[in-house]
């Protein structure tokens, strides 16, 4: 734990006091260097806060408003913001520049700059974000619950509903039963999936997965056959949708191979290790599968 200085917000920026923050695996990826960032960095991107002060020209929030910081901002002007099928605003800091839109950081520690993570940085008592990286929420919302809307819940639920477009009666498979995987299960359930198969090496994850809507859970460790063959046998070769929610190259290909060779859709939700290339057999796509990111 370090004492830091958090500068006042510049024009079109907002300083917020963090009330609650979740921990997402992506924060750990940054700490381990798997995901690109500027160091030293303040991670954390799944939070609820309250506006403490606003910079010049801020119109959408005022001090006292309860807010959720957005690592995918909404500038409402770029192509992705204007397209109903898009949400990857060009203002988001996916390449890890570590600064706000204006080009500099608001954090210092012992006089040295400390960088922002994805325009949010929530593992701190106070943070500064761009105005377009905030959503105002209901003042009565419980901070420790709604902070999950900042990443894990929206990512997983949206992966099923918006990206995969899970259809009623379909069979879904979810690789990885962390906070994001559980949210994928909730999305598959609300889309009307008939079976939702959870996969994890850690069987202690199964109970919660079943509680939020999985119909069965398996561990690849219990089988000698490749997991796609196991799933094909379990389902009569009828997995409509598969989701990789771990962040490993091998399970991304396993998930792709597990959905139906012709009409199956596989969604990559897990964050790929930044320094790696993926090798896969293009026959997996040639037969008709759809492979999507999210
Ligand atoms: P988590 O660590 O809580 O959950 C991952 C789960 O995968 C764990 O339960 C673990 O036991 C399991 N697992 C690990 N290796 C496995 C293997 N080889 N086979 C089967 N199961 C395995 O992580 P999380 O917070 O739920 O995040 C999941 C992934 O999603 C991470 O890679 C994270 O960076 C990524 N993510 C992406 C987005 C996005 O916008 N696309 C948003 C949030 C998180
Ligand atoms: Zn996250």
From TrEMBL:
Location of the Alcohol dehydrogenase-like C-terminal domain:
179-294
Q: Which domain of life is it from?
A: Eukaryota
Instruction: Using the record's annotation, list all stretches that form the Alcohol dehydrogenase-like N-terminal domain.
Output: 11-137
UniProt GO BP: retinoic acid metabolic process; retinol metabolic process
| Annotated SUPFAM superfamilies | GroES-like, NAD(P)-binding Rossmann-fold domains
A molecular function GO annotation? zinc ion binding
- Catalytic class of the enzyme: oxidoreductase
Entry keyword Transcription regulation: no
State its location(s).
Cytoplasm
Catalytic activity annotation: 12-hydroxydodecanoate + NAD(+) = 12-oxododecanoate + NADH + H(+); a primary alcohol + NAD(+) = an aldehyde + NADH + H(+); 9-cis-retinol + NAD(+) = 9-cis-retinal + NADH + H(+); 10-hydroxydecanoate + NAD(+) = 10-oxodecanoate + NADH + H(+)
Q: Which UniProt keywords apply?
A: Cytoplasm, Metal-binding, NAD, Oxidoreductase, Zinc
**E.C. numbers:** 1.1.1.1, 1.1.1.105, 1.1.1.66
Q: InterPro entries annotated for this entry?
A: ADH-like_C, ADH-like_N, ADH_Zn_CS, GroES-like_sf, NAD(P)-bd_dom_sf
Requisite cofactors: Zn(2+)
**GO cellular-component term (any):** cytosol
Q: Which family does it belong to?
A: Belongs to the zinc-containing alcohol dehydrogenase family. Class-IV subfamily.
The record's note on quaternary structure and interaction partners says:
Homodimer.
Q: What is this protein called?
A: All-trans-retinol dehydrogenase [NAD(+)] ADH7
């Amino acid at each position: 734990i370090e004492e830091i200085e958090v500068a006042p917000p510049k024009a079109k920026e907002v300083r917020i006091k963090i009330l609650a923050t979740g921990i997402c695996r992506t924060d750990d990826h940054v700490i381990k260097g798997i995901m690109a960032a500027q160091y030293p960095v303040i991670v954390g991107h799944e939070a609820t806060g309250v506006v403490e002060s606003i910079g010049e020209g801020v119109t959408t929030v005022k001090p006292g408003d309860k807010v959720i910081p957005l690592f995918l901002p909404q500038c409402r002007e770029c192509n992705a913001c204007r397209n109903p099928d898009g949400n990857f605003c060009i203002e988001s800091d996916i390449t890890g520049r570590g600064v706000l839109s204006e080009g500099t950081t608001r954090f210092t520690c012992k006089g040295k700059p400390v960088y922002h993570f994805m325009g949010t940085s929530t593992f701190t008592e106070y943070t500064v974000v761009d105005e377009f990286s905030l959503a105002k929420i209901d003042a009565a919302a419980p901070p420790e619950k709604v902070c999950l809307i900042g990443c894990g819940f929206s990512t997983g639920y949206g992966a099923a509903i918006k990206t995969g477009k899970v259809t009623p009666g379909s069979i879904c498979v979810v690789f990885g039963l962390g906070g994001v995987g559980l949210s994928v299960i909730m999305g598959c359930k609300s889309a009307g999936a008939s079976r939702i198969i959870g996969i994890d090496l850690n069987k202690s994850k199964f109970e919660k997965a079943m509680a939020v809507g999985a119909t069965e859970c398996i561990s690849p460790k219990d089988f000698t056959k490749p997991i796609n063959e196991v799933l094909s046998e379990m389902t009569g070769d009828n997995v409509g949708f598969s989701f990789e929610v771990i962040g490993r190259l091998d399970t991304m290909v396993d998930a792709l191979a597990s959905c139906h060779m012709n009409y199956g859709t596989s969604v990559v939700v897990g964050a790929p290790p930044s320094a790696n290339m993926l090798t896969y057999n293009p026959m997996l796509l040639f037969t008709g599968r759809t492979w999507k990111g999210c």
